[in-house]
Write a structure and sequence with these properties.
Blueprint (H helix, E strand, L loop, with lengths): L2 H8 L3 E2 L10 E4 L8 H11 L11 E9 L2 E8 L2 E6 L8 H29 L4 E2 L3 H20 L14 H45 L8 H6 L2 H8 L5 H22 L11 E4 L3 E4 L18 H22 L1 H9 L3 E2 L2 H10 L3 H19 L4
Antiparallel strand pairs: 1-3, 2-5, 3-4, 4-5, 6-9, 7-8
Helix pairs in contact: 4-5, 5-7, 5-8, 5-9, 5-10, 8-9, 9-10
């Protein structure tokens, strides 16, 4: 059976709304897990079912009315979610049945109609990149602040005692507290490093269309899936001496701290292994070079190393925001999603080099986004 015939069969109990104006005052909230993407439901109700748009009213994105088994219903996408409306609480008893059938039909549409179309749209570059820069930056800043707090809490104060016999226990207590602060600082520092590189990869994807993106040649799926250093080299001019210094610094931090701990604590080239020396014992593969290993000290990231890592990150952020990709950085900070549809991207790239026009454009788009999010039309 053709997909259109299958959909028609599922829609047999649905029909267009009555021409008479009916008061639909009873409502039933729709669990967001039933229709996690409200606009797919809008697609079903308008493009597939052919139900008309109604006057949406205050704080309503859209309002669609229809009849099910002769009874009038409406679905509204309101500021706080989807709701199903009917004329009475009695008719709402069919809510589960109505929503269940719509969900089933939408499942057919997604599988049979939209799956291939979505792949085609992605292949053609007709997509929007969701901007998670602030979300990832907040995560990075959170762990950085926690690490800073823990390291700053490490004290080297001399114990104050009145009883000579208690000095040993006080020293042990201070040593324990000192180690705990160091350990907690290190845990947060490692999470901070990981968060920074996650934010950096996201930024490089957002920046890609600003520097060298060709919608006809570039495979965005492949680019997003590439390792961060490949993204870096595609977006940042690695031939610049300044960029190369930053790149080498990031590589050192990433290889020594992020990668080692992200891969079970193992270093490259078997350097984390210990070989057997007969009648002597086990010896680290790096031998005396172990002094450079993160495993050589109980706390490989102490306060000084942490501060140097933060300086490296701050310096690179400043370089990106002022010299290398200022327009992309500003866009990431705006929180706006980035549409790569041909005309949208073309419109944006025409004005990014004009600071005044670019600021005005961002301000206008942010205002529109706020209006949409607050359902103020």
């Amino acid at each position: 059976m053709e997909i259109t015939e299958r959909i028609k069969l599922q829609l047999k109990d649905f029909s267009k709304p009555s021409n008479n104006s009916l008061e639909l005052c009873s409502h039933h909230p729709i669990d967001k897990n039933v229709f996690p993407v409200p606009n797919l439901l809008l697609f079903l109700l308008t493009y597939i079912c052919k139900f008309p748009h109604m006057y949406r009213g205050d704080k309503v994105h859209w309002h669609i009315e229809f009849r099910y088994k002769g009874k009038q219903y409406a679905i509204k996408h309101e500021k706080f979610g989807l709701r199903l409306y009917s004329q009475s609480d009695e008719e709402l008893k069919l809510a589960k049945e109505v929503l269940g059938k719509l969900k089933k039909i939408l499942g057919l549409c997604e599988k049979e109609l939209l799956s291939d179309f979505s792949k085609e749209q992605i292949h053609n570059g007709n997509i929007t990149l969701i901007n998670y820069f602030h979300k990832l930056d907040n995560q990075y800043q959170y762990f950085r602040e926690r690490a800073t707090f823990e390291y700053s809490s490490v004290t080297q104060e001399e114990p104050v005692v009145t009883d000579q016999s208690s000095i040993i226990s006080i020293l042990f207590k201070q040593m324990h507290e000192h180690d705990n602060k160091q350990r907690q600082g290190q845990y947060n520092a490692l999470a901070m490093i990981d968060s920074y590189f996650s934010r950096l990869e996201h930024l490089l994807v957002l920046a890609f269309p600003f520097v060298s993106y060709d919608r006809k040649k570039d495979n965005l799926i492949k680019f997003v899936g590439s390792i961060w250093s490949d993204k870096f080299r595609r977006v940042i001019n690695i031939n610049s001496a300044q960029a190369k210094i930053h790149y080498d610094s990031l590589i050192d931090i990433k290889e020594k701290f992020r990668n080692t701990f992200a891969h079970g604590g193992f270093e490259k080239e078997g350097q984390s292994f210990y070989f057997h020396l007969d009648h002597i014992g086990i010896i680290p593969a790096s031998m005396s070079g172990i002094k450079n290993s993160i495993h050589f000290n109980d706390f490989p990231i102490d306060n000084d190393i942490f501060k140097n890592i933060c300086l490296a990150f701050d310096s690179f952020d400043k370089y990106l925001s002022i010299i290398e990709i200022p327009q992309a950085w500003k866009y990431a900070q705006s929180g706006l999603h980035l549409s790569l549809a041909d005309t949208d991207l073309e419109e944006l790239l025409k004005i990014v080099d004009n600071e005044e026009k670019y600021e005005e454009w961002i301000s206008t788009q942010c205002y529109r986004m706020d209006q949409y999010e607050n359902v103020d039309y």
